[in-house]
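Dear U.,

Please find below the material for section 3 of the report. The protein was modelled together with zinc ion; I have listed the sequence and SMILES used, followed by the predicted complex structure.
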Amino acid sequence: MRRLRILRGKEKDLVKDLKKAALSLKKLGKKYGVSRQAIHFFYTRRGIKRPVKAKGHQTEECPLCQKLIQISKKPHSEFTSIHTIIKITGESRARSLRHLRMLRNRGLVSQRFGRLRSKRVEKAYAIYFTKRLPIRTIGRMTGLNNFYSVIKQHREWGYDVPPSLYVYDGQERSRVWSEIKRRKQR
Ligand SMILES: [Zn+2]
């Protein structure tokens, strides 16, 4: 009981501190020069209720989560590949993925954010969003011969793919089609 006796005279302060919950039992023990157990014994015996600390990961206080949310708010962020996202965060792959999953589960970023794995597809989309070029040309530039099907698939999965900046006129369309036909015949 000698340990508790040290608390005498400081009890009021300790009760106040216990109700604040900002300090852990270990830190309180250090502050009052007693063991963690002594602090625990003190407040359970007196029936002091400690405020419940918010459970789980605190995304508002996590710099990595905040950075991920920031990236996700940029236009077309669903088409930023996971490689690029990790590079921007400057964190390890495992840590970035863990926090990203948490944010998706809590609905703080889009379900599709961070799912794109192909750097080539990322590059193709970057061109698609900014340049007035036919989809086939972009595919050729990036080594994707199926970029058109990639876009179609993404649209089916709910990705927000705006219409191509390139306007296909009737002549262009028939030229594309006749070329496709010619290719098939080969
Ligand atoms: Zn986090």
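For the text of the report, you could mention the following: The chain has a mean pLDDT of 88.

Regards,
Y.
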